[in-house]
Each structure stands twice: as C-alpha cells, then as structure tokens.
Design goal:
Blueprint (H helix, E strand, L loop, with lengths): L1 H19 L11 E5 L10 H16 L2 E5 L7 H10 L4 E5 L4 H10 L4 E5 L19 E6 L1 H15 L4 E6 L4 H21 L4 E3 L11 H13 L4 E5 L3 H10 L5 E6 L2 H4 L7 E7 L1 H13 L8 E4 L6 E3 L11 H16 L12
Parallel strand pairs: 1-2, 1-3, 3-4, 4-5, 5-11, 6-7, 6-8, 8-9, 9-10
Antiparallel strand pairs: 10-12
Helix pairs in contact: 2-10, 5-6, 5-11, 7-8
Length: 352
C-alpha cells in the first residue's frame, strides 16, 4: 500500500512539474529558424556571415533546425521570406536595413511567427511608430556601432603618419553612415585632446553597392593618392578590394567593419590595424533562444553596446607592438568614458 501511495505522489509531482514548465507559449520541439540574407552572400566576411554564425550557435545550443536563403537582389527578399513561411518555420531572421519594409509587412500579416531583423528597429530614423506600430512578434537587433567606430577613429588619428585618414560607404543608409560619422567624430575628438589636425576624407563618399571589389580597390587607390594612410571601408565585400589596394601600398593600413577581419579575411591581416565589430552572432542567437524558450522580446530592440560587448574594436593583432602603450591607455579611457556617458558620440539608437 505504501509503495502504491509513493508512486501516485511521484506521478502527481511529475505532472505538476510538467504543467509548471509547459506554458502555452512554449514552442514545439521541432522549432525551425530561417535566415534571409541581404545581398552580398552568406560568405561575405561581414554581416551576413556573422549573423549566420549566430544561427549556428542557436542550432548547436538548442538542438533546433536552422537554414538560410541568399538574396542575390532586392527582388529575392519577398520570395525568400515566403518560402520559410510556407515551410512553417517558427522564426525568421532577416539581415539588413534594406529588408525592413518586407520584414514588417510579413510580421504584421503572420502574428504567430517570430521575426527579428538585424540592423533595424524602433529607433530614430527607422520605423515611424505612428505608421508602423510595434509588433509583439518582431524584434529589432541594433548595434551602437558609433561607440566602437568612435574608438577606431581615435586610434586611426593617433596612428596616422600623413595626418590624413579615409572612409567610404557602400550605400547611403543609416547603418552605414553611423560608422563613417562616428569614425570622423573619434578622429576629431583626438584632435581636440592632442591639438592635432588629422583630416578625414570620404565621409560623403558612397560606391552604390555592397558587391564590387573593383569599386573598393578603385576608391582605396584614390584615397591613398590623396594622402590617406588608414582607410575604413563600410561596404561589406567591397572593402576586400580596398584591402587589396592597401596591401599593394606599403605604409598604409585598413580598419575592417562588422567582424574582426584578421579572422574573416586573414589574407589581409598584415595591413589590418583593427576592426569595428558588431556582435550580430550574439544578438541573433539571443533572440532565437528567447523565442525558443517562450520569452521573446517582441516590440523592443536588442541594442549591442560597448558595455554589454555587443560592439567592440578588435585586437591590434600584427600591429600590437606598433601601437604605443600611451595610445592604448588613452583608447581604454575613451572607452570607459563612452560607457559612463561622459563622452558623447552624438548618436542615440533608442535602447529598450
């Protein structure tokens, strides 16, 4: 009799635990997450590739199914999102500013599917909340790249031998210009602190695409001809062409964006001073985990910052011994000042 009672109590305990751990919003075990790339390809050594790494992290950590569809042109966005919806994927991650309109439309029409978009969200200059109200199934994944780009501009101003540094963009969109403007701001802050007059070229220069390495080489050669000895291209794979131009001109250096280019493009590590990283892998994997565990933060933005390590500048790698210790110490002071709010980079992404 006692054994039977213990068994019944045990069963009741198990059932109680099951009910407690199984809210109605828990997802099904065969949860699938799909990623739609922006143009540039899955192996762009930039934001598509880093976002996909976040998908792989979620797959390995959660045991879910992940897949991606590449967009060769903007006309691919709608059919790619549609393909994942028709296959009953529980979550769709879109990568890039240019997918914002389609992502919002599909999220609004499919409230039972989770959506997250890299490099867009509810912030100034992005979705107008009066026209595009927040959706419970859509999360923005934003990055305070201004914080890290400011540091990169400061470093570049401290390392230039010619007194001229340069930048340029792929397309004139906020997620590109924020890098460029903050890079210039960091250099100007260096000038203010040290009484120097480092010039920044190319802050209004855009090649009009994210694919042509030839455009990157051409612009890089032009900036070098104008005296720039450190260049930060903000143009995805286009920047690989700039890296080739820098590599062909001894005494010049490159600053990568999105990822540590010494890792994603190691063939150019010998000219890579540092990179402005935004940890899209962390943001994507975190968003998927929240959706999987029934804790999705829809209607809000995940914002990567220096403080939460969602953005950072990469190690100096092969230039570690060439960057003076006093400059390294100053960069760390600037970093701490940005985190503390005593140094203003001039940008606000509307963190939630």
């Amino acid at each position: 009799m006692r054994k039977t009672l213990v068994t019944v109590v045990s069963l009741l305990t198990v059932l109680a635990l099951f009910v407690a751990c199984a809210p109605e919003d828990l997802v099904e075990p065969d949860f699938q997450a799909g990623m739609v790339t922006d143009i540039g390809g899955i192996d762009d050594a930039s934001f598509n590739e880093t976002s996909w790494r976040g998908m792989e992290i979620a797959r390995d950590d959660l045991g879910i199914t992940v897949d991606y569809l590449e967009s060769g042109a903007p006309t691919d966005y709608v059919p790619n999102i549609t393909e994942f919806l028709e296959a009953d994927y529980g979550m769709i991650v879109t990568v890039g500013f240019l997918l914002a309109g389609d992502t919002y439309t599909f999220a609004e029409e499919n409230p039972d599917t989770f959506f997250a978009i890299v490099d867009f969200g509810w912030a100034p200059g992005m979705w107008d909340e009066a026209q595009s109200p927040r959706l419970d199934n859509l999360q923005g994944l934003l990055f305070s790249t201004d914080e890290a780009a400011f540091l990169a501009g400061y470093v570049a101003a401290g390392m230039t031998q010619t007194g001229i540094i340069g930048t340029f963009g792929g397309l004139e969109i906020p997620t590109v210009t924020i890098f460029m403007d903050a890079f210039e701001a960091g250099a100007q802050y260096y000038n203010q602190q040290h009484g120097t007059n480092v010039q920044v070229l190319g802050t209004d220069l855009f090649v009009g695409n994210f694919e042509s390495t030839e455009d990157g080489r051409r612009v890089g050669e032009d900036l070098i001809a104008e005296g720039a000895d450190i260049i930060m291209p903000v143009a995805g794979p286009v920047g690989l062409g700039t890296a080739a131009a820098v590599q062909a001109n001894p005494g010049t250096m490159l600053i990568g964006v999105d990822t540590d280019w010494c890792v994603s493009a190691p063939e150019f590590c010998d000219v890579m001073l540092t990179s402005v990283e935004k940890r899209m892998d962390v943001a994507v994997s975190t968003s998927i985990r929240q959706a999987y565990e029934g804790q999705f933060q829809g209607g809000t933005n995940f914002v990567g910052t220096l403080e939460n390590e969602g953005v950072q500048i990469s190690p100096f790698n092969e230039f570690e011994d060439q960057v003076p210790d006093e400059l390294k110490a100053a960069v760390d002071e600037v970093r701490q000042g940005i985190i503390a709010g005593t140094i203003d980079t001039g940008f606000d992404l509307g963190a939630e």
